[in-house]
Amino acid sequence: MHDLALRDRARRLLSSGLSVHETSRRIGVSPATVRRWRDRPGDDSPMTGTCPRCAASPRLPSPPEAYAYLLGLYLGDGCISWVGDRAKQVWALRIACADTWPGLVQECVDALRAVRPTNRVRVLQKQGCKDVNSYSKHWPHLFPQHGPGKKHERAIVLAPWQREIVSAHPGRLVRGLMHSDGYRGVNRVRRDLPSGVHWYEYPRYLFKNESSDILALCGEALDLLGVAWRFNKRNELSVARREAVELLDRHVGPKY
C-alpha cells in the first residue's frame, strides 16, 4: 500500500512527459500500479484515501463542522490504536457510544463517514455500548492528540489548524464533548424554609473529564458561544444559569 506523497510524485513525473515505465523505474513501483494511478486518479485505496493534512499543500479537514463534532467525541470517549501488522501503518479510530442513545450512535457514524468518506465505518456491539470505528492510515494526522497512555496523563493541546476549526464551529465541538462525557438533566435542590421544605428544579449541563486540558477546551468553546459556566467539581464543569442552558440547547440539547 502506497502513500499519497508517492502517488503525487508519480503523477508529477507523468505530467512532465515521462513514460509509465520510466516513472516506474524512478519511484520503484510496478508499471501496472503507475498506469492505474494515471488512468484512475480518484481511485484511492479505502485505507489510504485522501488526507488533507499530509497532502503537498495541507488543508483543513472537510466538512469542518463534522470534524469539530468528531474531535469532541474523540477527546471524550475515543481512542486511536494499531490494527494488525504495525508495518502496514493502519490505525483504528474507536468511539464508545452507550446503547442508551441510538441517535448519538448514528450521528457518530455520520461524522466518521463525512470526514473519511472512502473508509468503511463499523458498529460493533459491546457490553452496554457500541464500538463505532473506522480504519485509516491517517487518523494520527487528523487527531495529533493521539499518543501513548491515557489522555488525562498527557498534555492535550490543539494544533493551530484545529483551533481554526473550533473557533469557527465551537458549538459542534461542545456537542461532541457533551455527547461523549456530558449530561443534560434536571437538578433538584432542597431548601428548608419557615413555611416548610421546598424543592426547586432546573435543567443544567454537566461535563466531566479527568483531563484538565480537555475541561479547559470545553470551557474555551463555551466562552466562544457566550455560554456562562463554572467548575462544579475538580473534574466537572456546569452550565446551570437559565439563559446559558437555553443558549446551549441550540447547539446540544438532551442526548437521544
Quick summary of this structure?
With 256 residues, the chain is an alpha+beta fold. 41% of the residues lie in helices and 23% in strands. The protein contains ten helices and eight strands.
Topology:
Elements: H1 4-15, H2 20-27, H3 31-39, H4 64-77, E1 78-82, E2 91-98, H5 102-115, E3 121-126, E4 129-136, H6 139-142, H7 160-168, H8 170-181, E5 182-193, E6 196-208, H9 212-225, E7 230-233, E8 236-239, H10 242-249
Antiparallel strand pairs: 1-2, 2-4, 3-4, 5-6, 6-8, 7-8
Task: Give a description of the structure.
With 256 residues, the chain is α+β, with helices and mostly antiparallel strands. 41% of the residues lie in helices and 23% in strands. It has 10 helices and 8 strands. It has helices at 4-15, 20-27, 31-39, 64-77, 102-115, 139-142, 160-168, 170-181, 212-225, 242-249, and strands spanning 78-82, 91-98, 121-126, 129-136, 182-193, 196-208, 230-233, 236-239. Strands 1-2-4-3 form a 4-stranded antiparallel beta sheet. The longest helix has 14 residues, at 64-77. The protein is elongated. The model has no long low-confidence stretch (mean pLDDT 91).
